[in-house]
Amino acid sequence: MQPQPADNAARSVIDIAKLSLTFETGDGPVHALSDIDLNIGAGEFVSFIGPSGCGKTTLLRVIADLEAPTGGTISVNGMSPHEARLARAYGYVFQAAALYPWRTIAENIALPLEIMGHSREEQAERVRRNMELVDLDGFERKYPWQLSGGMQQRASIARALSFDPDLLLMDEPFGALDEIVRDHLNEQLLKLWAKTDKTVVFVTHSIPEAVFLSTRIVVLCPRPGRIYDIIDNPLPRDRGLDIRETAEFLKVAHRVREGLRAGHSYDD
Length: 268
Ligand SMILES: Nc1ncnc2c1ncn2[C@@H]1O[C@H](COP(=O)(O)OP(=O)(O)OP(=O)(O)O)[C@@H](O)[C@H]1O
Fold this sequence. Notes:
With 268 residues, the protein is of the alpha/beta class. It has helices at residues 5-10, 56-63, 81-86, 105-115, 120-133, 149-161, 179-196, 207-213, 247-263; strands at residues 12-25, 28-41, 45-49, 71-76, 90-93, 167-171, 199-204, 216-221, 226-232.
């Protein structure tokens, strides 16, 4: 039986306490993350937003076991990030679609399944299901360069979902796309999230994107990278783009902007 949303919301997926990460560089230590406390529950859509260099990507990479913290604790699905990575607990979507140009879209999406040793039939079924989920059916035999930037990013989301992880980590996936495409993908991502009940952690620079997508918004500030504010988004989960014109939306956006201003240095 599928867990009910209420039970689901109670289960913690990511637990971070007093976490820090200092990079030792030739120019001295860089305090990329300091004193981070954050819990993310199942089914949440949490955005990290903040000025360049505040540690958004580093925090996402720590969750994904691509960086190791130098202090504090973190668990993902009750495991260390390393164990969670081996257990394939999450799918990761990068800023650039990073598809292999010599493989068709279907072959790109099948790649993680191939590596995991799924049968050809299983691969085909999962590729079909995930291509449908991101609205790309019909493009199986195309190569990445035959698709627009937005379609390539949808393919990379389908690839991240191919092995059905409960957790999706997304690092500015739509940052390089124009506004209209981005709006469309934001809507599609929200529908996909509602349909699949995934937990999503999403890095962005865009206030409207963060407010439109998220159930919670984490505002970070730099030097050292730390959490400035965590905003519960009161907007209903079922929202369309026109919600961006409402007073509630603008109120949340205003609070995010205030947080960004407070942590921003114009010398950057
Ligand atoms: N491998 C590394 N070695 C040394 N310093 C690093 C490394 N990775 C990141 N940093 C530094 O850590 C800080 C946080 O970087 P990070 O990329 O996480 O910020 P960000 O908020 O994602 O920035 P942006 O919005 O520009 O992507 C920056 O000062 C960055 O230069």
